[in-house]
Design brief:
heterodimer, A: 339 residues, mainly alpha, elongated, B: 305 residues, two-stranded antiparallel ribbon, metal-binding (chain B)
């Protein structure tokens, strides 16, 4: 069936629907705003007419090719109208339409509306009907969106759904690596990486992946210690595994390298604080590094509770926007931070 | 003078209430209540159609988000919600809740995420009736939305996001799972929400220009001053935000035409204007009424006093 969508219309050449033969004998149904509408909208004539015709076909439940055309027009005027999208789905089913054409339609709508919820829900509906055959196309489609906006939240949600429901995990970790090579600060890509290493049936799960991922995160930290994403990722690798977190020597080592460089310190410091609060006993080199960062020169850092308090104090200077927070943390250090 | 009050100066409150009430979807009979449809409020006439008495196909486009808005507007204009037929609304709302605790916003199908769980919780709270949802299941879904970095995503596995954090914490607060003393007891939730890591994540959302970003390594945007500010406020942690920095950022987003835009020098829109003002209220700006953070209304409107 030929695609009947014609939403690429030139608005300057709008032909009223009342003049179009395909809509002959359709009685438009005006919107009933009631006697005293509040915040009444000044609809443009072509919008009003399109919606009047939509109301008519919708109310009489006509599931026909001209209804499909009308939904294309209505969507181009207001792609957020979920009632129109739903009716379109009913029409597509009744006509047993070629859903590959529909994928093309959604791609056209996505051009100006990549952050529209209804569009993405519709795309998911189409992909679900097409099944696993559609999987690669969905990865490709979201990939195109990411070329324009590598952090489009809807596209990432859709991609996660595709992986989970249609199972095409093979290249996903590599894809994350590629995106992070393009922009190591892309938090969406870091999140996707975590999703892949924990959920992919091909990789063995978090425990199996943890070791290499710790190295990966630490390398990113080394290049850009001011980048919050790899720090959070690193911590996340050991969620609910405090023993492992406390015993992975690479972590305090990475923190120390940052401290010695004396720049972009806040995440290294807060990571050390987190470790110390869980009972980690830092070596002398780390203690010395903390001492040399202390702004109040009251001698060496002694007990661990002094150490934790010192770190909080340094953070008050290194991360002054959150000075109140670091003071508060200093006042509620847990027992584990004591000698 | 509070901007939230200007409505009463210009528009007759009864007219607003009457107009809002005209969007309510009503079941034809009690037997309709088991048909899986949600009988709430429509958002506009564009999804509300004149019903024909003998029509087989009754178009019910009522939606959780418009229902939340309708009830909130009614509270703002001082309408007594006990006059509403809430029984049908709440009973039918249950069929929107999914097996994983999340909510679909409309029975014909749509995306499901934390936003609609928040709407459901706010609806039950405003009607003071929790028959509309299974709170335990909802809490479970919220906890599944907490990410490895301490923030919350809109769905399990999604990237942590300021708006999702608000939906999560405000919902937990509305449902009664978060007390006033949340900060002093970081495991105040008898379950697995890690409040400490949420706190740390949320506070790092305030960036060098004083504004607040929605996700790490993204630009600061007016509305997150509310989403994150209100999340912190609900937890008793807004004292940790750099208020001076935030205030000066917000002022750069104020338009010469009035209102607020998303970024400095952007044209204003209603959404960012509302959230900009709401953020100023949280910051204690003189002349603005205090907010009930978890409902997104002034305290006066929320309590009806």
């Amino acid at each position: 069936m030929a695609s009947l969508s014609s939403e690429g219309e030139d608005w300057r050449a709008w032909v009223p629907l009342s003049s179009r033969p395909e809509f002959a004998a359709v009685t438009p149904l005006p919107q009933d705003d009631g006697p005293s509408p509040v915040v009444a909208i000044a609809y443009r004539d072509d919008f009003r007419e399109t919606m009047d015709y939509f109301r008519s076909l919708y109310s009489s439940r006509e599931l026909s090719p001209r209804s499909l055309l009308l939904t294309s027009l209505a969507i181009s005027f207001n792609p957020a109208n979920y009632t129109v999208w739903h009716f379109r789905r009913q029409v597509l089913e009744a006509l047993d339409a070629d859903l590959n054409d529909e994928l093309e339609f959604t791609e056209r709508v996505a051009k100006g509306n990549a952050k529209n919820y209804q569009l993405w829900h519709h795309r998911r509906w189409v992909a679900e009907k097409l099944g696993s055959d559609a999987a690669c196309g969905e990865l490709e489609f979201t990939g195109k969106i990411f070329c324009l906006d590598a952090k489009n939240y809807h596209a990432w949600s859709h991609r996660q759904w595709v992986l989970h429901a249609l199972g095409v995990w093979e290249n996903e970790l590599d894809y994350c690596t590629q995106l992070l090579e393009e922009d190591i600060f892309n938090n969406s890509a870091w999140n996707q990486r975590y999703f892949v290493i924990t959920k992919s049936p091909l990789l063995g799960g978090l425990k199996a992946m943890r070791d290499s991922e710790v190295d990966y995160a630490i390398e990113a930290i080394g290049t850009n210690p001011e980048n919050e994403s790899p720090w959070r990722y690193l911590r996340g690798l050991y969620n609910d595994e405090n023993d492992g977190w406390l015993n992975d020597a690479r972590v305090p080592c990475a923190c120390l390298r940052v401290l010695k460089a004396k720049r972009n310190l806040k995440f290294a410091l807060s990571t050390l604080l987190d470790l110390v609060c869980l009972g980690f006993k830092p070596n002398q080199e780390i203690r010395d590094a903390i001492t040399s960062l202390r702004t109040s020169h009251s001698g060496e850092v002694g007990s661990d509770s002094d150490l934790a308090k010192s770190i909080c104090s340094i953070l008050g200077h290194e991360d002054p926007m959150r000075a109140n927070y670091w003071t508060w943390r200093s006042g509620r250090l847990p027992q584990a931070a004591e000698v | 003078m509070s901007p939230f009050d200007s409505l009463s100066l210009k528009v007759h409150k009864d007219a607003v209430a009457g107009w809002v009430l005209s969007f309510q979807a009503h079941p034809r009979s009690k037997s309709d209540l088991g048909n899986g449809q949600f009988y709430g409020f429509h958002g506009s006439r564009s999804s509300q159609f004149p019903s024909k008495d003998n029509a087989i196909f009754i178009q019910n486009g009522s939606h959780l988000a418009s229902t939340y808005c309708a009830l909130a507007i009614l509270k703002i204009v001082g309408y007594n919600l006990s006059n509403i037929d809430s029984a049908s609304m709440l009973t039918s709302m249950r069929s929107l809740q999914q097996s994983d605790g999340s909510f679909m916003p409309i029975h014909i199908g749509a995306e499901r995420d934390l936003r609609f769980l928040y709407c459901a919780a706010a609806i039950c709270f405003m009607l003071n009736n929790w028959n509309g949802m299974d709170r335990e299941k909802a809490k479970e879904y919220i906890l599944n939305c907490q990410s490895y970095d301490g923030g919350f995503g809109l769905t399990p596995g999604s990237e942590s996001h300021g708006g999702a954090a608000y939906c999560a914490i405000a919902s937990l607060r509305l449902m009664g799972f978060i007390g006033d003393d949340c900060l002093s007891n970081a495991s105040a939730l008898s379950s697995k929400a890690n409040i400490q890591s949420l706190l740390d994540w949320s506070l790092q959302r305030q960036v060098a220009d004083g504004g607040i970003q929605g996700r790490p390594n993204k630009a600061s945007d007016t509305c997150y001053a509310f989403w994150i500010g209100a999340t912190m406020g609900t937890l008793g942690a807004n004292k940790f935000i750099d208020e001076r920095g935030l205030r000066s950022f917000l002022l750069t987003c104020q338009s010469e035409y009035g209102g607020f835009g998303k970024f400095p020098k952007e044209l204003p829109d209603l959404y960012h204007s509302y959230y900009g003002l709401a953020a100023f209220s949280i910051l204690g700006e003189a002349g603005l009424k205090p907010l009930c953070l978890e409902l997104g209304l002034t305290e006066g409107a929320a309590t009806g006093l």
